[in-house]
User: Fold Oxidoreductase from Lentzea pudingi.
Amino acid sequence: MTDRLITHLRHVDLAVPDFQRQRDFYVDMWGLTPVHEEKGLVFLAAEGSPEQYVVRIRTDEQKRLDLVSFGAGSREDVDALAERLGRKGVKLVSEPDVVQTPGGGYGFRFFDIDGRTVEVSCEVEVRKHRKVEEGESVPVKLSHVVLNSPSPERTVAFYDEALDFKLSDTLTSKHMGDVMWFLRCNPQHHSIAIARGPHVSLHHASFEMRGIDEYMRGSGRLMRAGITKVWGPGRHMAGNNTFTYFLDPHGNTVEYTTELEELDEDTWHPHLYDFSKPEVTDVWGTANPMNELVAKESFNDPDNGVFVAPPV
Assistant:
C-alpha cells in the first residue's frame, strides 16, 4: 500500500437556478439535515456522518458542479499535495489557508485536468452525529461521486499520478471499449469513478444507507412520491453495492446505495467487467434494463463551471 495524501471524500457542492426547490428536495425527500443557512446557500449534513456537511447547494443563474471536496490527514499533507500539483503545472484556485466554510480547517482548491474545482482539506471540526436507527431511511454518509469526462483515460491518469487514487475495477465492452473506471483513496471500492461521456459533468452522487431494508424503504419512498427513477433497485457487480438512481429537480442523478465493498488493498487486483452482460450491471436482475435512455440521463447537462471557480 502507498502512503496517500488524500484520505476520503467529504462533500459535493451544487449550484442551481431554483435554489428553494433544490433545497427542499434534498431536505424533505432525500433526507439530509440543514446545518447552516444564509440567503441562497445551504449546507446539508448526513445524520450518520462526522463530516460537517455532505452537500452544499448554492443559488446561481446557471446549473453547475461547484466542487468536489476530499479530506487529508494533516497540514503537512495538504501543503505537500499543493506543492506537488504546482510542480506538475496544475492551476491552483487558492493556496493552502484557513477554510472559510462550516467546520473550518486548512485546505486549498485547484482545477483538475477537466476543469472541475477540487478542494482538499484537513482539521475540519468533526460534526456531532448519531447512529442511524433500524428502519430509518435517511443517508448515513456520502458514499461516492462519479464524474463524466470526454477524455476519461486522461482524467483517470490525472487522479492516479497527481492524487494517488488507485484503480479498483473497469467497466468495458467489445463494442464501446472501456467506459467507467472505479478509483479509490482508501479501502472503500471507490470514492470516485470516471465515466466516458460527451462532456464534462456530474454523472451521479451516491449516498450510503444503513442497510438493505433502509435502502429499499428510501427507494420506495421516492418512487411513491413520483420522483423520477432512472435505474434500479438492483446490485452492481463492480463494488457489490446496491443502487437506485433518481433525478433531483435540476436533472442531477443521485443514488441510494448500501454495502459498497471494502477491499484488501494488499491483495486486490482490478477486474475488467463486460457491462454488456446483464449480471454485471445488475447481479439481482431486479432493475429496469440498462439502455441508452438510462445512460443519457447520466450524461447530465454540460457543466457550466469548467475552469471557473465558485464564488464561495
Notes: The mean pLDDT is 96.
